[in-house]
Write a structure and sequence with these properties.
With 216 residues, the protein is mostly helical. The chain is built from 7 helices and 2 strands, in the order αββαααααα. A two-stranded antiparallel sheet has the order 1-2. The longest helix has 53 residues, at 31-83. The protein is globular, with a radius of gyration of 23 Å. It starts with a helix and ends with a helix. The relative contact order is 0.07.
Length: 216
């Protein structure tokens, strides 16, 4: 573990001065990598070496949890798309013994590997955050729509603790996270949105294909 003042000062100097020369002589910077290293060093200085290790472990567990939910939920989206005729029918195959969409899960695994190999962790994270939290906020916002409809028809048959305040807080937090990510990482954010936008022509293609099939 580095000395508190000297270690932090050294890392701050690196944040300001670190450079790398590529073959063409262009100057490259790696602020995100240095920021991550600075966080690790500060955690170790404030809580000791064991505290730094526990912080790293907590981050790893959080990342694993997020990846796990993605691996569980995304294949079900592919399955639903296939069932609705908006994707290849084979993706909707369900194993008889396990009753899970094995083709969709395998497809998600392949896509995860491709994404993992496409860039640095922080780059990929910013691709996802700028898009995911838009839909997290929109999903939470639908509670206001459902509650308004049920108020006209019948009493709500589900409970949301603290609604509407907790729901509004989550929507606002999601909006701030998206705005902050776009402000600090505009290139990665717009790249993520561009990847997201490629889904629109695919959707329109499958939809028009189904319409032509229904008309014949």
């Amino acid at each position: 573990m580095v000395d508190d003042e000297d270690g932090v000062a050294e890392l701050l100097d690196e944040v300001e001065e670190v450079r790398a020369e590529d073959d063409g002589g262009a100057v490259l910077r790696a602020p995100d990598d240095l920021a991550l290293r600075l966080q690790d060093e500060l955690a170790a200085d404030l809580m000791g070496q064991r505290g730094g290790a526990l912080t790293a472990l907590a981050i790893a567990i959080s990342t694993l949890g997020f990846l796990s939910q993605g691996m569980l939920t995304a294949p079900r989206v592919y399955y639903a798309m296939a069932e609705d005729g908006l994707f290849f029918r084979s993706v909707g195959f369900v194993a008889k013994r396990t009753q899970v969409p094995v083709v969709a899960i395998a497809l998600q695994g392949v896509l995860a590997i491709v994404i993992a190999l496409s860039g640095r962790y922080d780059q990929i994270l910013n691709y996802v955050i700028s898009s995911d939290f838009i839909f997290f906020g929109l999903t939470a916002g639908t509670l206001f729509v459902f509650r308004a409809r049920q108020a006209r028809e019948e009493a709500p048959n589900y409970k949301v603790p603290g609604h509407p305040w907790t729901t509004a807080l989550f929507v606002a937090a999601s909006a701030l996270i998206v705005a902050g990510t776009v402000y600090t990482h505009p290139k990665e954010s717009f790249t993520g949105w561009l990847i997201l936008a490629t889904g629109f022509p695919v959707y329109w293609f499958w939809r028009s294909k189904n319409r032509r099939r229904a008309d014949t």
